[in-house]
Structure formats: structure tokens, C-alpha cells
Amino acid sequence: MRLRHAVVAEFVGSAFLLATVVGSGIMGERLAGGNVAIALLANTIATGAGLVALIATFISISGAHFNPLVTLAEVWLGKLRWKHAAAYIAAQAFGAVAGVIAAHGMFDLPLIEASRHIRTGPSQWWSEVVASFGLLTVILNVAKRRIEFIPVAVGGYIAAAYWFTASTSFANPTVTIARSFTDTFAGIRPVDAPGFIVSELMGGALAVLLFRWMERSHDSSRGVPEALNKEGASDDAARLRDEPAEQIDGAALRSAQRR
């Protein structure tokens, strides 16, 4: 697949992801009548379902990253070149902002507005470390073993993380930047965004380190029985080579008689 196709897929996927996150937040808040739990539930269901659909749509074109953490992990693991990664991340960033603009247009809001939603402090930052670590751990391990489950695994994890993290699991630097341009339910103050981004990068890096360690351990443990099998086969071959022909024939005859 050509790079330009992958870049367009990352742009479109990121745009629809942010339109889903922001749009469902606006709709949920308007319909919830002040009940924040109902608004968050609506936001969660829409985002999780949207991720499943978008990843299934674009995974064969670009890998459906929609997230610089995933793209940088691919570079770290030697699966993507830096120049391709730069194009991916630019497409994700512009696509995410385009998605916010699209959502605002659908709900008759100013197309761009700085958020006033306060999201800062150690608990919020730690939540983003945990959320990002978990997301990358899921993606890397499922992609390695059962890639067909990636859409459901990612959508399901994000839906869960909306509820078990204090930050509602941004876990995506371009999502964080784009959400600073919406003064709605899904927003984050621009001044709070850097703390989230640093935390997300930390969580993603820890996940890649864990994945690399687990893969090395898995490869090492798998190599032990293989080496033993090869050693055993060599010993058998040497024994047969050293035994007299009549002894081998006698053993074969006794085996045939038993059958």
C-alpha cells in the first residue's frame, strides 16, 4: 500500500474519531439533563463503537494507528521508517483538528474555541500513564498474536478505560491537542494538554519496554526445547551410526514381531 493512501487513511480515521468523541460528548451532555454519568456513558459507547468500526475499516490500509503512540512504537520496534512516521503523525494531528471542526459544525458551535475544562494534577497525569500503558500493551500483544481481534480489543479497552481512569483515558497526544480546541464535554484546557501528553508518552514507552522484554523472554524459552530436540536427534543419529548393522536389524525384527 502506498504511503499517500496510508496518510489519507490516518487523516480520515483521526477526523472521524474526534468527530465521534466530541460530537457524542455534546449530544450526551445536551440529552442528559445535567447527569454527568449519563453523558459519560453516551460518550463511552459512541467512542468504543466508533473505534471498532474505524479500525476495521482502515487497518488494511494504514494499520489504523490514529495515535502517535502507536506510530512511535512501530518506529521503535523497527516496523516503520521515521519519514513515514512523520507523515502519519502530521495526518493524525490535522485529521483530529478537522474532526473537532466537523463536530462543532454539526452542533452549530464556533468551529474552534479554546477549552475551559480543567484537567490537571497528579491523579490525572497518573491516569494517563496507566491508560496509555494499557492501550499500547493491548495493541502490541493482540497485533502480534490475534490481529483480527484488534478492532474489538482496542474499542473495548478504551470503553473500559473511560470509566476506570480519572482522566477518562485520552491516551493519545493528537487527541489531547485536538480536544483543547473544543469548549465542550470532551475538552481540555490548552494549558493542561502538555501534562497529559508527557504522561501519555511515558505510558507508551513503558508498554513498549514491557513488550520487548516479554518477546525476548518468550523467544528464549521457546529456544530451549528446540535446542533439546535437536540435541536429542543428534544423539540418536550418532548412536545409530555407531551401532553394528546386525544389531540395528535385530532391533527392527523384534519390533516387527511385537506388532
UniProtKB/TrEMBL annotation:
One of its GO terms (cellular component) is plasma membrane. GO terms for molecular function: water channel activity. Pfam families: MIP. It is a multi-pass membrane protein. It is found in: Membrane. The keyword Thylakoid does not apply. This is Aquaporin Z. Keywords: Membrane, Transmembrane, Transmembrane helix, Transport. It comes from Paraburkholderia domus. Residues 221-259 are annotated as: Disordered. The keyword Magnesium does not apply. The chain crosses the membrane at residues 7-26, 38-64, 85-105, 125-143, 150-171, 191-211. InterPro entries: Aquaporin-like, Aquaporin_transptr, MIP. SUPFAM superfamilies: Aquaporin-like. Belongs to the MIP/aquaporin (TC 1.A.8) family. Residues 228-244 have a biased composition (Basic and acidic residues). PANTHER family: AQUAPORIN TRANSPORTER, MIP17260P.
